[in-house]
Model the fold of this input.
Amino acid sequence: MISSAPDSAPSPRGPSIARPRLVVPPSPSAPRERTPPLALVIFGASGDLTSRKILPALANLADRGRLAEEFTVIGVARTDWSDEEFRRAALKDVPYAGEGWRALVERFRYVAGEYASSETFDRLKEVLAEADQRYGTSGNRVFYLATIPSVFAMIAEALAKEGCNVPGEGGEFARLVVEKPYGRDLASALELDAAVHHAFDEDQIFRIDHYMGKETVQNVLALRFANAIFEPIWNRRYVEQVQITVAESIGVEHRGGFYETAGALRDIVQNHVMQVLALTLMEPPTGMDATHVRDEKVKLLKAVDIPTPDEAVDKSVRAQYVAGVVDQVAVPGYREEEGVAPDSTTETYVALRLRVENWRWAGVPVYVRTGKRLAARVTEVALQFHSVPFLAFEGELARQLRPNTLVLRIQPNEGISLHFGAKVPGEEFRVQSVAMDFLYDTAFRDNRESDGYPRLLHDAMCGDATLFIRTDEVEQAWRIVDPYLEAWSEPGGGLHFYPAGTWGPHIADLLLERSGDSWRVPEL
Ligand code: BG6
Done:
């Protein structure tokens, strides 16, 4: 194998000259599929998201041989770096990756400049043309917006103005990958969409929700639609209630400033929770492709009841953590975190009682909750089934019986467990709830919890939009959460408090107790 030469001052060459080739290590276990030739342009290349998520994902793909040989990366950002400084930062961000990654980093180029300046985009076009010449990236481009959201529209429009919304010479595609948050309410999301659609067509836009890249989120589709035994009971006749929990034990870390403008509803519910909910409750798609899967998700989201702001107050709880103990360590309250106002009313916890008004789910409450600094990190979907229609057991025994529950554990300890009653050995007839567990780690030895980015990045570069969020999904998800934002916008907005390290405020229990229900305590 020949490794690529450093290219800090590449001279344009004719296509007939042999190009440096990437070192692509053999990877016998990995699928062989590689991206098509392309240049990946990362806006926000010196930022946090690039260093924590995108570069590690690229290193993962490079080392597994999933990138085309005709591939390169161009970083764009305001930080005044040279090509060499960008490369050094990349190697520092992912120091553990292998030969494929290091060879790729040698090709990295960097364009420093303001996003509002046409010079930045002129320079980018030159570097793209050089990449086509030198590496055979063939006019194909993927533009990844890993910047603050306020410049998404500006960059998309500038790219279009420079003609970068269409492939370069001889190319087949130009795509735009956009990070969340996509708007901060329905009105701003529509405005952003109008601007982005002015520059790119919907089929060129890949909106990321990293939960869709998680194996266990995708496994909801496999469980439901590759097995005959679940679908017949996946409805109101058998399911009594659904609970979706996205609990984090971490606080806002160094993102206090951002979180102050977001809160748990915007940060987690509008996107990750809505995606998990849609996959769990949607109708079977007629194909596992982008159109059919997303059509069904949208149909389901459209069936989620949209409350009036008054109903929204009644059906929700919002709260903020105060100082407490997490994993035996004393931690400060949200208002003491860096970048957070001492009188902040931003919620770090949300619980909602939703209804899905369609034939399959009418009358089944869907409870969702998410929070930071909760007792443990766990994301799960639990379907609790109806109790038996008649109990032949009497007294204490009857009270011990718990309804059957199917738990889809998204993280950590990914797996699926079915909870049912079994007789406790002995003379007495006692029944205890036990679990039948499927664990990813046991079933698939090379399973590694992934943050979803390698998969999503690869899909976007290959043009598969199935796991990306379509414009109508984003809009409908905002329609669902907007009434809560409106209801909470009053000063104080019904904010409650909970000590860090607990499962949230007591009042969230009352949200369920009214209907005789209670939150599940996830198995840790
Ligand atoms: C992000 C949120 O989208 O998801 C973060 O902005 C949150 O606040 C993160 O911590 C959770 O992702 P994961 O993959 O750790 O569950």
The mean pLDDT is 91. The chain has two domains: 38-179, 212-503. The pocket of 6-O-phosphono-beta-D-glucopyranose is lined by residues 248, 267, 379, 451 (CB under 6 Å). The CA atoms of residues 424 and 430 lie 5 Å apart.
